[in-house]
Amino acid sequence: MNHKKIYPSYFILLPLVLYVIFFIVPSAMGLALSFTDWNAMNDEIHFVGLSHFKEIFANQRYLLVILNTIIFALATTILKNVLGIGMALALNKQFKTRNFLRTLFFFPVMLSPLIIGLVFKSVYNPDTGIVNAVLGVLGLNGLQHDWLGDVNTALAAVIIVEVWRLVGQNMVIYIAGLQAISDDYLEAADIDGATAFQKLRYIIIPQLRPSITINLILNLIAGLKVFDLVFVLTNGGPARATEVLNTVIYKEYSSGRYGFSTALGMIMFVFTCIVAFSVLRAMTKEED
Amino acid sequence: MAKKKTMLTTIKAIVLWGISILVVIPLLIILFNSFKTQSESVAMELSLPTRWMFENYTTVLEEVNIGRAFMNSMIVSIATVLIATVGAALCAFVLARRKTKFHKFIYMFFLVGLVAPLNMVPAVLVLQKFGLMNSLLGLILLYSALVTPFTIFLYYGFINSIPKELDEAAIIDGCHAMSLFWRIVFPLLKPVTVTVVILNFMNAWNDFITPFYVMNSSDKMPMTTMVYSFFGQFQRSWHYVSVIMVMILVPIIIVYAIGQKYIIAGMTAGAVKG
Fold first, then answer.
1. Which of B57, B85, B102 is the C-terminal boundary of a domain?
2. A84 in B contact zone (CB under 8 Å)
3. B143 and B224, same structural domain?
4. Is A82 domain-assigned?
């Protein structure tokens, strides 16, 4: 059978061309431009070596941004996974409303982060928001707060919205993982008198390893890349408490410092690749 | 023992219904406020409108250029779905069937795009070079490129599970490359196709970062960018902002209602094998 004829190479062409032009070329250009002083003011572009990177890593302002991004990525990843496993376990057994609840819990994944951001802005509103209203009803007036306006709570408040948005995605991946676990293991454990916790610890969690791997990678990448939600909720404020890499990249771009903006983009590129690759390595290595 | 079990089930039910309420509340806030008067909607509270202002919807349709924005979003989303899905399906088919060193390399090359973020500023520069700034076509091509890696990834895995003997039989029966793919293989890919169509539509429909970088004229704006700039201008008109948000949500809800089984299947594909 002539492979060249029935599987012609020109089938590959269209996506490859689009991908190279609009993804690979910008990535390569980003690398090159991050070593230049390209900006909106001057016509000529000069090579400035590593000076952008030196500025970024020597300046507390930017180190704080990188730290915020890491905190955001880690906190959302942990919360989404823990809650996702819990919800998946609760929905794993067959009962009447199971499919309905699964569909409902997944729904926020489908929504535009822009809309979610706008709504939660009003949910968190110190005077009229539902969060403070509920605290008031519960008699916890002492806890009422300007959640997004306070330096100490703003990042946590944004993290909670991101968890609300994507926990359903983790849940469905864990449900799929749970359904792949053979009942024989669990029945054998029952016969041996294992407790629910022991079953979770020694059978379910180890068997879920592929789902855990994929969820860790997806969530860490999404966390490092976060932009729209932060942009709408706080735009990096108050006092840069929620500033993350992508919001700074946009701000530097709007202020015309293109070279500097691409340098930050480069850092995010390298960071994301390293994180994804190391998680994959660590999780698949232990398997052998 | 039995008593403990029923108590656990009750607790579980309470927790699950609690989560359901948390999911639904923000959506109800949008819906209720879209029917309120301006003064009542200022607080964006969770309460039923005292008077149902159905005319909010007609006002937005007449006053704001929302029809245009809706069309822009539809054109961009549908075109992205067509280009990305057809392109990626053909591409994944050849990559999955040939598996030479070269084809494996191309597959890995695509997978880089699954992980790495796009460097937005140079992407803007590329669009400028092609004269695609501020144009729907630019947005369509950019989105198509960005969703291609994931689309190929899903198709590739699925095509691997279809026996190659099928292709050989079709060729012996006189099929050509194109007819083999469209008449024999593509119908078998229906579950993945539904998944990627929905996910790609959703991504294009919901995105609002990219138009922020590449669009500056208001008649080219999609719905998301439109609602954001509208919100910026009329901070106190939450009733109208809510109306536009409902309009953004409705197509997504329809798509989700039709295809939720396939979306969830697609999201979990590969997750079990690792």
1. B57
2. no
3. yes
4. yes
| Residues ≥6 apart with Cβ < 8 Å to A255 | none
Nearest to A101 among B20, B91, B206 (CB): B20
Contact check, Cβ <8 Å, A22/B30: no
Interface of B with A in 141-170 (CB under 8 A): 141-142, 144-146, 148-149, 152, 167-168
Q: Any bridge partners for residue A47, and if so which?
A: A36
What's the number of domains chain A is made of? 1
- Nearest in space to A272 (alpha carbons), one of B148, B274, B113: B113
Which pLDDT tens digit goes with each residue over A175-215?
888 888 888 888 888 888 888 888 888 888 888 888 888 88
In a domain, A33, yes or no: yes
CATH number of the domain that residue A260 is part of: 1.10.3720.10
Question: Are B111 and B12 contained in the same domain?
Answer: no
CATH number at residue B200: 1.10.3720.10
Quote the domain boundaries for residue A58: 12-118+165-285
pLDDT at res. A287: 53
Residues B252, A111: contact at Cβ < 8 Å?
Answer: yes
pTM: 0.88
Which residues in chain A have Cβ-Cβ distances shorter than 8 Å to B221? none
* Structural domain for B104, as ranges: 64-233
Which of A213, A71, A281 is closest to A156 using CA atoms?
Answer: A71
The partner residue sitting opposite A173, judged by closest CB among B30, B248, B268, is B268
**B43 with B87, same domain?**
no
Number of domains chain B is built from: 2
Instruction: Give domain status of residue A174, yes or no.
Output: yes
Surface of B (115-134) touching A: CB under 8 A: 115-123, 125-126
If asked whether residues B53 and B71 sit together in one domain, one would say: no
Same domain, B78 and B181: yes
Rounded (5°) CA angle A254-A260-A266: 110
Check CB contact of B243 with chain A, cutoff 8 Å.
no
**Domain-located, residue A206:** yes
Question: Chain A: nearest CA to B152, how far in angstroms?
Answer: 9
- Alpha-carbon dihedral B129, B131, B133, B136, rounded to 10 degrees: -130
Task: Tell me which chain A residues have a C-beta less than 8 angstroms from the C-beta of B95.
Answer: 12
Cα of A269 to nearest chain B Cα, Å? 6
Query: Average pLDDT by consecutive 10-residue portion of chain B (274 residues)?
Result: 72 88 92 87 82 85 83 94 94 91 92 86 91 92 94 89 86 83 88 87 89 82 86 79 90 87 72 46
Tell whether B45 is covered by a domain. yes
> Would you tell me which residues 212-251 of chain A have a C-beta closer than 8 angstroms to some C-beta of chain B?
213-215, 217, 221, 224-225, 227-228, 231-232, 249-250
Partner A, chain B 193-222, Cβ-Cβ below 8 Å: 202, 205-209, 212-213
